[in-house]
Amino acid sequence: MAQGGVQVxxxxxxxxxxxxxxxxxxRAAAEKRTYASMAAxxxxxxxxxxxxxxxxxxxAAPEGRDDGVSTAEELAxxxxxxxxxxxxxxxxxxxxxxxxxxxxxxxxxxxDRDVLARQIVREEQxxxxxxxxxxxxxxxxxxx
Length: 144
Fold this sequence. Notes:
The protein is mostly helical. The chain is 66% helix and 3% strand.
């Protein structure tokens, strides 16, 4: 570890690339493996691997957020992205009538239209009956 440009402690016997790969392997295991088991596979100590992972985490998320983006700018960017995604989602949603039309087109060669029409009428009647009964659940009982 360097302080003020001066090397402190001893130099690691492992090259930087090996340490980065070890950290990547540990993370790729989605932290389902312990430091000890992963380190044993790599021929290093668990404490070395733990230290490398912690250093990598510290470098990945510096406390000062010195990336030139303020919190307000980041919030504005995220809100804009959220709005864009919500708009895209709405564009892909289809109305029930459109879904029914598309389903009819898809099954047309395989379905007897009269049977299908009767089934649609039955389902609509069931839906209305259910809507009527569900609406009465929260209503107070009326005395005759």
